[in-house]
Design brief:
Elements lengths: L3 H28 L6 H26 L7 E11 L2 E9 L3 H22 L6 H20 L3 H19 L6 H30 L5 H5 L13 H18 L8 H4 L5 H10 L4 H8 L1 H4 L3 H22 L5 H21 L4 H35 L16 H12 L4 H32 L16 H4 L1
Antiparallel strand pairs: 1-2
Helix pairs in contact: 1-2, 1-4, 2-3, 3-4, 3-10, 3-15, 4-5, 5-6, 6-8, 8-11, 10-14, 10-15, 11-14, 13-14, 13-16, 14-15
Length: about 450
């Protein structure tokens, strides 16, 4: 009979291996141009979800009696050079186990829904390959024991998200919006990577070293107040980009260009909560800096107000649901800034399940509404808003314009961030062209000196 420790280790590896096997089978079939039948794909998905979820629940059951439910599984040193080494380490605790169970439950639900929703779709196999990449990224991110391991999963989630936004690549709008999402994710990923390098510079190699050996959320960090503020600000920037907090909120409604199943599991349930998950993981660092906590609360509450206002004027149901989800995510971030730990975790679990249900139910809800309106022969009555009686008419008009333009966030980013970068790149390009023309004694290619305007983000992309 295997010991309890061996059983826990086996279950821990099983949770990670399941999405790897799923990705390898689906990915190799696509690379070899041998598409699997839909029935085979569905059976593989079902088996993977059942095995992964069962292993996660059994792991939770084995850890509940422990006084300090904190299990670490070492995957060995993958990189070892002077003054730097990369461990592949997995952590199973009160934070990672609920999150991984949520991932398997919601991904399994969406996979079952998508097997019919995407039936006979030309990109059926490609859709589930990208979802397998997403599931692997969520698994690695949730269980990461080092910041490098978390970054690897973080990248897989971002890559699959952007590719699924641009899933219908025969149309220009999904591709353009997918590139927009990818650009925002690049900023978030860069902040997380710099945070990882900063932690190494301060001499911290993994989460146990940074956050203490006690089980979450009782860990105590050894970093100084200054180090906590620097690392926390970088992590907050990474979380803001991934969870669409201000000023990055503009990409979230653009992500609705993807298929409804991916919108449900990514931007309603799991991916959009990764920023809050990251802040929960580094919560001992946040506690070291009251200034950082105040900034997190301010950012969360301001994003919640913005999302509430913008969500009230959306004309399509997917955008309305995504703003409703963003409102709750922002409140979760504010709760973390206030020093709460278990309440934000349960808030994530509840909001993820609710938004998945709403996204999956949305198509039939619209059909039910049309049938009801046909039955009564008129539009359904709208309930009057409480705020309409309190706010003056001029302010209502201003708020409507603010909401319909989604806070002018995209316009401000284009004008004050993207345009200067594009102008600098074009200036460098002109200087390079002049230099190469001078060295070659003639014009190496056509000059576009007349085009000196920075242009918009859409033109740049």
């Amino acid at each position: 009979m295997p010991s309890a420790e061996q059983l826990v280790t086996a279950l821990g590896w099983c949770i990670v291996i399941c999405p790897i096997v799923l990705l390898c089978v689906l990915g190799l079939s696509s690379l070899l141009s041998r598409r699997l039948p839909e029935e085979v794909i569905n059976a593989l998905l079902k088996t993977t979800m059942i095995v992964g979820l069962t292993s996660s629940v059994l792991m939770l059951a084995l850890m509940l009696p422990m006084s300090n439910p904190h299990v670490t599984i070492e995957g060995g040193k993958w990189v070892h050079i002077p003054e730097y080494e990369f461990h592949f380490k997995l952590i199973y605790d009160r934070l990672s186990i609920p999150f991984i169970i949520l991932s398997f439950v919601l991904c399994g639900t969406i996979f079952a829904f998508a097997s019919r929703y995407m039936h006979r779709e030309p990109g059926y196999n490609r859709f589930f390959v990208l979802n397998a990449v997403f599931l692997l990224g969520m698994t690695v991110t949730s269980l990461a024991g080092t910041v490098e391991t978390l970054f690897a999963g973080w990248e897989l989630v971002g890559l699959s998200s952007a590719l699924l936004v641009a899933f219908f690549h025969e149309r220009p709008a999904p591709v353009r919006n997918g590139l927009r999402v990818w650009c925002v994710y690049r900023v978030s990923d860069a902040a997380l990577l710099i945070a990882a390098l900063t932690l190494h510079h301060f001499g911290h190699t993994d989460f146990e070293n940074v956050l203490g050996s006690e089980s979450w959320p009782y860990g105590r960090t050894e970093v100084s107040d200054h180090e906590a503020l620097v690392v926390g600000l970088l992590m907050l920037l990474a979380a803001a980009g991934k969870s669409a907090l201000i000023p990055f909120s503009g990409w979230l409604p653009r992500a609705m260009e993807g298929p409804t199943p991916s919108s449900a599991v990514f931007y309603g349930a799991l991916s959009v909560h990764l920023g809050a998950f990251l802040l929960l993981r580094i919560s001992p660092i946040l506690e070291k800096s009251p200034l950082l906590c105040a900034l997190i609360v301010t950012l969360g509450l301001s994003t919640a107000v913005y999302a509430t206002i913008a969500g009230r004027v959306q004309t399509d149901i997917k955008s309305a649901i995504c703003f409703a989800s963003l409102t709750q995510v922002a409140l979760i971030v504010a709760e973390i800034g206030f020093g709460l730990r278990y309440i934000p975790l349960f808030h994530i679990l509840g909001n993820g399940c609710l938004r998945t249900l709403q996204f999956v139910r949305a198509p039939t809800l619209l059909q039910d509404r049309r049938l009801l309106e046909n039955a009564i022969g008129d539009r359904l009555p709208k309930s009057s808003s409480f705020w309409r009686s309190l706010l003056p008419h001029t302010l209502q008009i201003w708020l409507y314009r603010f909401a319909i333009e989604r806070g002018y966030l995209d316009a401000m980013i284009d004008d004050y961030i993207v345009a200067p970068f594009v102008a600098v790149f074009r200036f460098c390009d002109r200087m390079e062209r002049r230099w190469t023309d001078y060295l070659s004694g003639g014009k190496s290619r056509e000059s576009d000196e007349a085009d000196g305007t920075p242009g918009s983000l859409e033109e740049f992309l």
